[in-house]
Amino acid sequence: MTLDQATIDRLAAKPVPPQRLLIGGNWVEGEGEPVPVISPINGARLTELAGASAADVARACAVARAAFDDGRWAGLAPADRKRVLHRLADLIEAHAVELAVLGVRDNGTEISMALKAEPGSAAATFRYYAEAIDKVYGEVAPTAGNVLALIHREPVGVVGAIVPWNFPLMIGAWKVAPALAMGNSVVLKPAETASLTLLRLAELALEAGVPPGVFNVVTGQGRVTGEALALSPDVDVLVFTGSGATGRRLLEYSARSNLKRCYLELGGKSPNIVFADAPDLAAAAKAAAMAIFRNAGQVCVAGSRLLVEASVQEDFLEALAKATAALRVGNPLDLGTQVGAVNSLAQLEGNLRFVAESRAEGAEVVRGGARILTETGGYYMDPAIVARVAPSQRLFREEVFGPVLAVTAFETEAEALHLANATDYGLAAGVWTANLGRAHRMVRGIRAGVVHVNTYGGADVTVPLAGAKQSGNGADKSLHALEKYTDLKTAWIQL
Ligand code: ADP
C-alpha cells in the first residue's frame, strides 16, 4: 500500500457527518448526550458521536444475545463464516487509506505508522482468525474403560469489548476478530476520543455479510455507556484494553452483576535496558527514542523507562538526545511526521504535569517537555527525556502514556533486573546486549509478557500480547486468544 500526500489531503478535507449507534444492523440515534469529537491535530470540532444511554446499551446487548441464541452466525458452516471474515479483511484493505486518514483525524497518530498499524494490522488480524475457524476444534480425551469423552469447544455467547483510543482499529480487531471467528456476538464500546474508524469497521462488517445483530457498536462516555455494558447481564465475557483504574471498576461491575469473565490489558511502565556491551550503542539510542516517542508515547508497550549501564550513561544520553531532536514532531497527516499529536488536551496536561513534578523532585530534564506548535490549536509536545529518575518517583512507577522517557542508571546486571521488575506492571521490556547468556538470563528474569532483545517493539498477530502482574490477564493475538472466546464442554459417554 503506497500513500501520497495529495490523497491524504483530499480525504482529510472531507466533512465527517454526525455518527450513530449500530444496534441490530440499524444505525440509530442515542438517547444520551451526543459526544463532541475534537481533532487533536488542530483542536477543532470534527463531528459528534451518539451517546448511548444505559437503555440503548441494554437494547444492544439483548439484540446480541438473540442473534447468538438463534444461531444466525454461530450456526453457519465454518467455511461460510470464514468467507465473511476474509471479505471483511478485503474491505478493510480496499478502504485502508480512507480508514487511516479518518483515524488520524480522530486520534492524532502519525499517518505513516497509522496505515500499517491500524487498517494494516486489522486486516491481518481478521484474516488470521478467519483461517483459524476451520482449524481449531475439539479433542478426544484418553479415558479408561468403555467411555468416550469428547471435549467440545463452544462460543461463549455475547462478548462485550471496551477499547482505548491509541490504536482503536488494531486493538478493536484483536478483540472483535477472534470473538466473531469463534461464533460469538459482539457489543463494542470504542473510546470517546477514537470511535470513528470502529464505526466504519462495523459498516464494512455488515457489507461483508456479518448478519445484523451479531456485531453492534455503542459509543459514548465510559462512565455511562461503558459502565452499562460492563454491568449487562447479557454479556458473558468482557474484554478490555485501557487504564488500570477502569480495569478495577470493570471487575467491580462484574462482581455486582453476573460474574462475567473479565480479560484486562492495562498498560505498562516497560523497561528498556541498555548494557555497555550492546552490539551497537548508536543503533540502540535511535531505537530507544522510537520505543518511547512513536505515536507520541501513546503505546501500551512503550519503552518508557530507560535503564542504562552507568559507564555508558553520558554518551548514551547524548546520542539519545540527538536522535530525539532529529524526530519530526507535527501534523500527523504529513507523511514526513514521525511523532504526531497527543490525543487530547487532558492527556497533554497530564504529560506536562509529570515532567514538572519530576523536575521539582530533582530529576534532570535533558531535553523537551514543553507544549509546542500551539499556533496550530493542536496538542503537540516536544518529546521529553528525564534523567536521574529515582525508583521512588512517580515518573518511574506510573504510566504517563505520553512522550516522556524516564532514565535511570544501574551498575550491575542484578541491579538492572531488580530495577526492571520494580514496577506493578509487566507488559513489555527490551534488553540490549551482545552477551547471549545475559540476554537469556534477562528474558527469564523479567516479569513481562514480551521481552525484546537488541530491538524494541516488534510484534505481529502470530504472537500473544499477554500482561504479567497488573498489566492484565489473558492474551490478545495468536491462537491463545481463542481461550477467551470459547468455553470447553465435556461429553462423557458410556459405550
Ligand atoms: P484512558 O485513561 O487511557 O482514556 P480508560 O481506561 O479511561 O483509559 O479508557 C479506556 C476505555 O474504557 C474507553 O473506551 C473508555 O470510554 C472506557 N471507560 C472509561 N471509564 C469506564 C467505566 N467506568 N466503565 C466502563 N468503561 C469505561
Plain-language structure description:
By secondary structure, the chain is an alpha/beta fold. The protein has helices spanning 5-12, 54-69, 78-94, 96-107, 111-132, 168-181, 196-208, 222-231, 244-256, 281-293, 313-325, 345-360, 394-397, 413-421, 436-445, and strands spanning 21-23, 26-28, 32-38, 45-51, 139-141, 147-155, 158-162, 185-189, 215-217, 237-241, 261-265, 271-274, 305-309, 364-367, 371-372, 380-381, 384-387, 404-410, 428-432, 450-453, 465-466, 475-476, 486-494. It folds into 2 domains: 5-266 and 472-494, Aldehyde Dehydrogenase, Chain A, domain 1 (3-Layer(aba) Sandwich), CATH 3.40.605; 271-459, Aldehyde Dehydrogenase, Chain A, domain 2. The strands form 7 sheets. It has a 7-stranded mixed beta sheet with strand order 14-17-18-13-12-19-20, with helices on both faces. It has a 5-stranded parallel beta sheet with strand order 9-8-7-10-11, sandwiched between helices. The mean pLDDT is 97. Adenosine-5'-diphosphate binds at residues 162-164, 189, 191-192, 222-223, 226-227, 230, 242-243, 246, 249. This is Aldehyde dehydrogenase family protein. InterPro entries: Ald_DH/histidinol_DH (IPR016161), Ald_DH_C (IPR016163), Ald_DH_CS_CYS (IPR016160), Ald_DH_CS_GLU (IPR029510), Ald_DH_N (IPR016162), Aldehyde_DH_dom (IPR015590).
